[in-house]
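Lecture 7 notes: from sequence to structure.

We start with a single chain of 272 residues. Read the sequence below before looking at the structure.
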Amino acid sequence: MKFNSKSPDDPVQLIDQAIKAAIAAGSKINEVYLSSDFNVQFKEDNTPVAIADRLAHDEILKQLECTGLPVLSEEGVHLSYSERKNWDLFWLVDPLDGTKEFIKRNDEFTVNIALIKGNQSIAGVIYASVTDELYVGITGIGAFKLLNPEENCTFLTIQHSGTKLPEKKITDEFIVVVSRSHMNRETEEYIENLRKEHPAVKIINKGSSLKICMVAEGTAHVYPKLGRTMEWDTAAGHAILKASGKNVYLTDLKTELIYNKEDLKNPDFIAS
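Now the structure, written as tokens:
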């Protein structure tokens, strides 16, 4: 089935389909979340995976099929670099980001869908299905947040009815958002160094890509990630953050994080 668009590479029309996919996947996740059995298993790297991950993955593939673009998903087949290195435009997906938070039932997990062009994340959708919060950003156009989106929600809907990011936040504190489940010594040292410049540092623990969303919103100043992440963990948030006027850099604070590398692991980065 072909994508019905006069401009099949138009990121606005493509992201409309990603919004639909994220909301549909979130519905599948919520069905499992409200059940008594998550059917949790463990991958080779000892990270957990629940049946909701697979259901969300399948739903996203179904919804994105009409775009005709390749999909690289955490829960899908990871093609070799020789096969994907020439992809000019593709989807990078984490069907359920924050599986540990899902298992803990703390609501801090998301559906992440990013549109990658070359090695740059140019558009992204993040949907927190339990709290019904939708974040969408297209670089060069803007980033927005919408509460309680309808199933047929589009980017135009979000532009008209949502909140443009960043929102103005006034605080005397310098807010650092860090992982709820993956804190380490390197991050603690980074925060201690921040205290030399910012006496009133406040730390907020948050799960999944909601950390990057907080920086895009302006409810956090910085999210340092000095530890293991994969490309699908960050791509959607990166696009939203960049569309809000901020960015994700390596620790040199100059080099932007890139995608579709031979090794899909991310280096350490700072989102600010």
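Helices lie at 11-33, 51-64, 81-84, 99-104, 155-161, 185-197, 210-217, 231-243. Keep this in mind for problem set 3.
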